[in-house]
Amino acid sequence: MTIKLIDVVITAREDQGAGIAVFELARPSGDELPRFDAGAHIDVHIGDNFIRQYSLSGNSENKNSYRLGVLNDPNSRGGSVKLYQEFKKGQLIKISEPRNHFPLDADAKKTILAGGGIGITPMISMAYTLKSQGKPFELHYCTRSKGAGAFERELLQQFPEQVIFHYDDDGGEQLFSPEKLFLPYDADLHIYVCGPTGFMDWVINNAKSFNYPSEQIHFEYFSADVDVTGDAFEVYCAVSDITVSVGEEDTIVKALAAAGVKVDVSCEEGVCGTCITDVLEGEPDHRDHFLTEEERSDNDQMALCCSRAKSKRLVIDL
Ligand code: FES
User: Fold this and answer.
1) How far is the CA of 185 from the centre of ligand 1 (A)?
2) Residue 263 C-alpha to ligand 1 middle, in angstroms?
3) Residues 6 or more apart from 259 whose CB is under 8 A from it?
4) Which of 93, 198, 207, 261 is the most exposed place for a label (fewest CB within 10 A)?
5) DSSP per-residue letters across 197-265
6) Cα(273) to centroid of ligand 1, in Å?
7) Which of 99, 263, 268, 318 to mutate to test the pocket of ligand 1 (most atoms within 8 A of CB)?
């Protein structure tokens, strides 16, 4: 997949909350940017072969600028820290066109948006869209403490009826409670969650335990710890007619690269979908956080950066 790049300039940077930088991006000419739908993200080229994904957090009706929220997170793989510490107003950067793997369900009658920490960013663009469509929703923003989050003033101004803040250090009734929000089971309710992996797993697992089917649970992981190790297997590339062996500690992407077959990658931890490739034969061992349960069970595509094989051999469309 070839990703078209766009040159943009950082037109504004505002530091908010605890270690969050909010960047506004626009074309140097001021012309319109490609439109996006709520939930979309862009790749930001932070350095040579150093690309990270960030959700677009502004109103999708704004045609001339994109907005990102970036957390100065020392536990990240370095992209967010570099952006936070080094990127200033006036700087030129390259970004991809928006892609959306986290869209709103157009048929949802009710929506709960749950953002943990910096995971609030896609929820804000969703809230703008739902508000403009006149659809009922709640926007839950979970942070460690009052003042730690970004966008709080904007959320109170724009969504005074819908936004609910939850502070970890405040305890009691105000804490985010999946039981209170998701029960009794509601066939009309769609749940969206984004944030730290532990928060997301907790919300998703609660929703599942309350019998919400996967069609009603929507999520997007920013990053993930993925175990890419396992038994060795063979991969045959049907288009290039090349066979590679993937060792116990290897990934398909690395094994293919060693054989001269380049695969476009971005996150390399199974969250962005850049490396998803069709599978023609064999059974993948899915390790990613990108494909839905249905897509996994179809076994006709897989993330080459992290997933492995349950069968001895895979045939892929490369
Ligand atoms: S590179 Fe992001 S899912 Fe594989």
Assistant:
1) 34
2) 10
3) 242, 244
4) 198
5) HHHHHHHHHHHHHTT--GGGEEE--S--------S-EEEEETTTTEEEEE-TT--HHHHHHHTT-----
6) 5
7) 268
Task: Please give the average per-residue pLDDT across 277-303, as a whole number.
Answer: 93
Burial of 70 (C-beta count, 10 Å sphere; 0-12/13-18/19+): buried
Top mutation candidate among 265, 291, 301, 308 for ligand 1, by most atoms within 8 Å of CB: 265
C-alpha to C-alpha distance for 241 and 180, rounded to whole angstroms: 55
For ligand 1, atom 3: residue with the closest CA: 270
Q: Which residues of 265-291 are buried (b: 16+ CB within 10 A; e: fewer)?
A: bbbbbbbbbbbbbebeebebbbbbbbb
Whether residue 160 is preceded by a cis peptide bond, meaning omega within 30 degrees of 0, is: no
Can you give the pTM of this predicted structure? Answer: 0.86
Output the CA 188–ligand 1 centroid distance in Å: 32
**For residues 170 and 199, what is the distance between their CA atoms, to the nearest angstrom?**
17
- What is the percent of the chain with per-residue pLDDT over 70, rounded to a whole number? 99
How many angstroms is it from 265 CA to the middle of ligand 1? Answer: 5
Helix (H) or strand (E) holding 169: none
How deeply is 244 buried, as exposed, middle or buried, from its count of CB atoms within 10 A (0-12, 13-18, 19+)? Answer: buried
**Quick check: 300 and 241 in contact, CB under 8 A?**
no
pLDDT surpassing 60 at residue 256: yes
Exposed, middle or buried by CB within 10 Å (0-12, 13-18, 19+), for 19?
A: middle
Mean per-residue pLDDT for 55-69? 97
Identify the residues whose C-beta falls under 6 Å from ligand 1. Answer: 265-268, 270-275, 288, 290, 303, 305
Nearest to 272 by CA among 284, 288, 287: 288
Residue 76 parent element (H or E): none
